[in-house]
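> call design_seq(struct)
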């Protein structure tokens, strides 16, 4: 089985992976995968808390895969060796926690996953370079070119796209102008979206879970499971009020009603943003 979820920000949003919430998780094996769409954040400062949660995650029965977001300590990340895994380049953070590198294609359970991490922070003025923000958050031209070459090698075909940023045109359609910057990555993702033949695209970063159209999905605290037909949501199972009942200390108050567009099994997620991201106006109603 392959599951996909959004940002965990170190221990801040990792609770979605507890057995109380992600109930299926306890029955998985190392041949099952949970993919985190960036802002992994457990390679940040080597604090005792961080190491505790890293070990906690490593001890989960599944294998965790993650792409980088903008909230990663890229200086720490560059200390890890690169290895080949399922057709692409990775870094083993622990035996069971694997960083999927930018612009790589992976063959997992017969599906081709094209992965490209990175994003541009929009709260740079509150961050210090090398302490809480790293220039490497936005891919270099060389990384972009590598990602393009990978797609050339695969004839611009994949099954699933995993990114932290959405393409430029989606950002522009969903958010107020200037909320999220256009940059070398989002522009490249425009190109990917136009040229690549793929089925589903999942992106973290924006801190909500929402269907954009029948191929692009924002994901945050929801967890979805890939199926033969596409995917099904496994967290939260139903209305978010149930979610709150499970862990009241994590979700202290209701943040709204279940949306009416829940027919595709992918409604808005349960938790509003707790970090420094701005409020996000969602202007495009899900189909
Ligand atoms: Fe994030």
């Amino acid at each position: 089985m392959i599951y996909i979820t959004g940002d965990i920000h170190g221990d801040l949003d990792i609770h979605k992976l507890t057995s109380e919430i992600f109930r299926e998780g306890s029955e998985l094996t190392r041949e099952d995968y949970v993919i985190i769409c960036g802002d992994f954040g457990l390679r940040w400062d080597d604090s005792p808390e961080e190491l505790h949660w890293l070990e906690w995650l490593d001890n989960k029965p599944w294998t965790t895969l993650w792409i980088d977001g903008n909230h990663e300590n890229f200086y720490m990340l560059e200390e890890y060796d690169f290895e080949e895994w399922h057709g692409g380049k990775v870094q083993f953070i622990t035996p069971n926690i694997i960083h999927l590198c930018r612009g790589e294609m992976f063959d997992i359970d017969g599906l081709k996953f094209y992965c490209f991490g990175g994003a541009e922070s929009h709260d740079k003025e509150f961050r210090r370079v090398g302490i809480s923000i790293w220039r490497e958050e936005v891919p270099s031209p060389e990384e972009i070119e590598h990602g393009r070459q990978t797609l050339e090698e695969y004839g611009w075909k994949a099954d699933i796209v995993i990114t932290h940023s959405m393409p430029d045109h989606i950002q522009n359609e969903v958010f107020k102008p200037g909320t999220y910057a256009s940059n070398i990555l989002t522009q490249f993702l425009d190109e990917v979206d136009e040229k690549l033949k793929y089925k589903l695209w999942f992106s973290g970063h924006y801190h909500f879970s929402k269907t954009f159209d029948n191929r692009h999905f924002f994901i945050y605290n929801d967890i979805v499971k890939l199926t033969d037909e596409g995917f099904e949501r496994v967290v939260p199972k139903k209305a978010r009020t149930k979610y709150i009942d499970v862990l009241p200390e994590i979700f202290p108050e209701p943040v709204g009603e279940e949306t009416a567009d829940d027919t595709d099994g992918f409604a808005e997620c349960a938790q509003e943003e707790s970090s420094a991201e701005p409020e996000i106006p969602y202007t495009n109603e899900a189909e």
